[in-house]
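Q: Structure tokens for this one, please.
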Amino acid sequence: MTSHFRHISTPRPAGEIKAGDRVPATEEDLQRLMAELGIRPPGPLTFELVSTWAAKHVWRVEAGGEPFAYVRYLLGPANLFPDRWRHMRLGEMLYEARVGPRILGLAPESKALGGRAVVVEAALEPISPEELAARAEEAILLMARLHSYVPLHEALSADLIEADRLGVSSLARLLTETRERWFEAVVPRWLEVGLVEITELQSIVGELLSELQKTAIHTGRIGLVVPAHHDPNHGNFMVNRQGALRLIDFEGLALNNPVADLGVFLDWYVEPERHRALLQAYPLADPDAVLERMRVWVPLRYIEIAAYWAARLTRARDSESWLYAAGSLHEWLFAATRLIYPDGAPARAGSALEDIHAALLAHTTLAADAGQGGDEEGCKKLA
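A: Here is the predicted structure, written as tokens:
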């Protein structure tokens, strides 16, 4: 979830920003950045800080009162954040593929930003969830362009990271790693901070994974590895000046099975009875093979995201972060349960999830103690 607020800058000497410094750049810094990158805006610039998530800040830039650009910078030089820098430096290639926005400027170590890596992208127009759902076939074709762009595939293959290796894992391995994440990482941490609800929660998660294990045994393979976006929510779909759909925020760009994009997009924005028909527009894989893999991969991904929020919960620094993490944990596990039991989850599982959520909401006083480890970012973004 992205925070939106007008940033009031405090004058500061140029170059004072240091690697890892979470203090946002000033508007003076950003003005110097435009000059450094040779960007010539068509009018006076105004800046709005719209996200301070993780190791990246994002500014919206207007020129003469009109949308002009987005500035995305890391909290240090490119060599300190090689995985995050990867999706930035590939921005020009994504634009050439007619997938991402036009790149106005790029620097692995910007002098104006005290050595931070930065990319400046041309502004695009947002799209509502309803409009995106109505343009689902166009979105499928957009993802097909991303998945089939050979130069991008070659660039990612030449610079493999852990996300790529995980992306090409078998369903069996993904099931094993998700189970380990829950039972070897999340469960001990919850017990350490005194959250006894983990006993019932691990029972539910165990049952969900066991059901997926049964389905995975009979699921065929899709012998296709593609460049995947990994977060096709409506906030990452935009519209260019010609009205065509584009994607932004390639933070998770990595090699994976095409279901990594197609599956979650279809589940979020398209009624199940339309899935097969829409997949006819996707030229790289058989629709039935995609649907078969979706039955395991999508709920498994949701359980993995739930594990992320379960871990973040124990590091929440305040009640707001605690409540957000608890709500996200409940939301993703409920979504997984809905997919694993399409005819209705067993009454016990549904009731237990509600009881656990209610108990966690009553535990907000534990947030300060649980957060002493320093969750510096808060719980403000979808995994």
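A few notes: Residues 129-373 form a domain with the Aminoglycoside 3'-phosphotransferase; Chain: A, domain 2 fold (CATH 3.90.1200.10). Strands lie at 45-51, 56-63, 66-74, 103-110, 116-122, 125-126, 226-228, 237-239, 245-247, 254-256.
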